[in-house]
Design a protein that fits this description.
Blueprint (H helix, E strand, L loop, with lengths): L1 H19 L3 H22 L7 H23 L3 H28 L3 H6 L4 H27 L3 H29 L4 H9 L2
Helix pairs in contact: 3-4, 3-7, 4-6, 6-7
Length: 193
């Protein structure tokens, strides 16, 4: 009985996959059409869109965050300034890892995502770095309470808000990619009932 279910499910899976795969000429037409549309958009708006958009936006935001925090650290030569510097350096080291993982998740082949699912390895790495970043945000919030200069506290508060917004963007990016339909995931759920 169990083997009969497995054979039936595998047959359904094979037929379903073959029906969904377009011919090679359809892929070529779609790719050409997408490229033409993208070129027109780039000419009209003056911007270049690509898979690296999310990753570069994250990298840019965190670089700005680090630069501003290092300026705060230079103004506060006391122990607080050194602690702020450490947080900024740690976040700077994490930004490249996160940006590369975002780029990898974002550029994953749609067919692979459809059949196997999202890139859970890189999604997990991004989540891990987000937890570390949240810890740094909490540390900065504690340091903010002990800052003596109003300029440093205002700048630090703005940077905390900026990094929190970036965390929200990353969370939305992860939710979007984790919620994509996968045939294997659906197939596994079928047999777990």
């Amino acid at each position: 009985m169990n083997t009969k279910k497995i054979y039936m499910a595998l047959s359904f899976l094979a037929i379903f996959t073959l029906l969904l795969l377009p011919s090679k000429s359809t892929f070529a037409k779609a790719e050409t059409s997408t490229q033409e549309r993208g070129n027109k958009d780039e000419m009209r708006t003056g911007t270049i869109k690509g898979n690296e958009g999310e990753a570069e936006a994250h990298r840019s935001t965190v670089a700005s965050f680090v630069k501003n925090l290092l300026e705060v650290a230079d103004r506060n030569k006391t122990g607080i300034g050194e602690q702020v510097r450490v947080v900024a350096i740690e976040e700077n080291e994490a930004k490249d890892k996160v940006a590369e993982a975002v780029k990898t998740v974002d550029s994953r082949n749609w067919l692979k995502t459809f059949l196997v699912g999202a890139d859970y390895k890189n999604i997990g790495m991004i989540r891990s770095e987000m937890v570390k970043t949240q810890s740094r945000i909490d540390q900065l919030s504690r340091l903010l309470k002990t800052m003596s200069t109003s300029t440093g506290s205002v700048t630090t508060s703005e940077q905390i808000n900026l990094l929190t917004q970036e965390q929200t963007k990353l969370e939305n990016f992860l939710k979007t990619n984790e919620s994509k339909f996968s045939l294997f995931g659906w197939f596994a759920k079928l047999f777990n009932r």
